[in-house]
Amino acid sequence: MKDRFLNNSLRECLAHSPAVVLLGARQVGKTTLAKAVSQDMNAIYLDLESPEDVLKISDARAYFSAHSDKLIILDEVQRQPDLFMTLRGVIDSNREKGRRTGQFLLLGSASMDLMRQSSESLAGRIKHLEMSGFNMFEVLEDEQNQLWLRGGFPESFLAESDHWAMDWLEDLIRTYLERDIPQMGFRYPADRLRRLWTMLAHLQGETVNTSKLAMNIDVDPKVVRHNIDLLVDLLLVRRLDPWYENAKKRLVKSPRYYVRDSGILHRLLGIHTYDDLLSHPVLGKSWEGFVIENILSILPKYAEAYFYRTAAGAELDLVLRFSSQDVWAIEIKHGLTPKLSKHFHQTCADVGASKKMVIYGGDDCFSLGKEVEVMSLKHGMHELQKKDDKNPELGLLK
Fold first, then answer.
1. CATH code of the domain covering residue 27
2. 3-state secondary structure string across 189-225
3. In what order do the strands lie in the sheet with 315-323?
4. pLDDT at 89 over 80
């Protein structure tokens, strides 16, 4: 098993909090990581998709109390949202008995807003970690293009060929559409939801006109918005919000959307090989999404991510704000000889950038003058990691 970037982060969170929720799309490796981390702990694993394990917690409070000395791992916890009401009471009861950390590890393949359908709050009792597929820190130097083409799902990335990787991704897409989403109570025709997902793939990294999409699949715009929100909640699509602080400019105020996993993006678009990708119109936007997902997979929790675009067309692909005085402006170019747009320096000034970076498809690092640094994706991630080497959300990678 490859070492995962969040390994140390998860251990530290369990050592400092009574409950930790590890979020991530299906099959990104949450269960494998949880079991690996818990090997040297007194732990119980329950799969809430298994009828036998669900039966064990028919009286959840009694079961949890009987095993209060163990770490209880609850997989696919979004299947049992009512458990959150019980967890609060059990955690508080255990705290009164002197146990304050390492009680529950919750694994979920949906956002917390979708999972926690009760009004009970676990504020102050739970830490959140989000797990992506493999990122650049978890693969070899010469595996970048394979990671970009196949995406970060371990089964896809580690497949014996591109053909089998895309075959596995097709099965994953169908499983989401035909089983997982209906089981969560959302009754949408699978073919219609796939068409919407594919349209978002064609619009990778763009703002979305929901009315136009609704016309193309013959539904109400409200249904399109709701379905996009669902794909976002399932951690399959990323919504990147626009920078909004410069009141003197007419800014684009609609979010951009990215299919989060580059492998799923390519499967939806019928891209099967690296050569196919290099000749496809989505090449630039695919690279942009790939870079953004890698960067955000190691971003400290306190940081905020945006894009910046004015009505006149001046833009920055990614703006990272760590504080009001510490803002990074990042331009993303796939080519080996990146050129800055004529508005780059002005847009950096608009957002008050303290650091200017260009992430490109090459391996070298060099300067373009005026404090602009050009670097590879992996080097850019190392620069980001230096922000706070002690922050547990950065994985403490050595």
1. 3.40.50.300
2. CHHHHHHHHHHHHHCCCEECCHHHHHHHHCCCHHHHH
3. 304-309, 315-323, 326-332, 355-359, 372-375, 366-369
4. yes
Taking alpha carbons only, the member of 270, 276, 204, 281 closest to residue 236 is: 204
Number of domains in the chain: 2
- Residue 262 in tokens: 């580059």
Which residues partner with 332 through β-bridges? 359
Q: Where are the alpha helices (DSSP H) in 234-282?
A: 262-268, 274-278
Range of the domain at 259: 136-394
The backbone torsions φ and ψ at residue 75, rounded to the nearest 5 degrees and listed phi first, read -90, 145
Pairwise CA distance, residues 252 & 57, whole Å:
49
Residues 13, 104, single domain; the answer is yes
- Name residue, tokens 């999404």: 289
Each residue's pLDDT tens digit, 329-385: 999 999 999 999 889 999 999 999 999 999 999 999 999 988 999 999 999 999 998
Cα–Cα dist 261/168, whole Å: 14
Give residue-wise pLDDT tens across range 20-65.
Answer: 999 999 999 999 999 999 998 999 999 999 999 999 999 999 999 9
pTM of the full structure: 0.92
**CB-CB contact of 291 with 132 (8 Å):** no
Q: Are 15 and 92 in contact (CB under 8 A)?
A: no
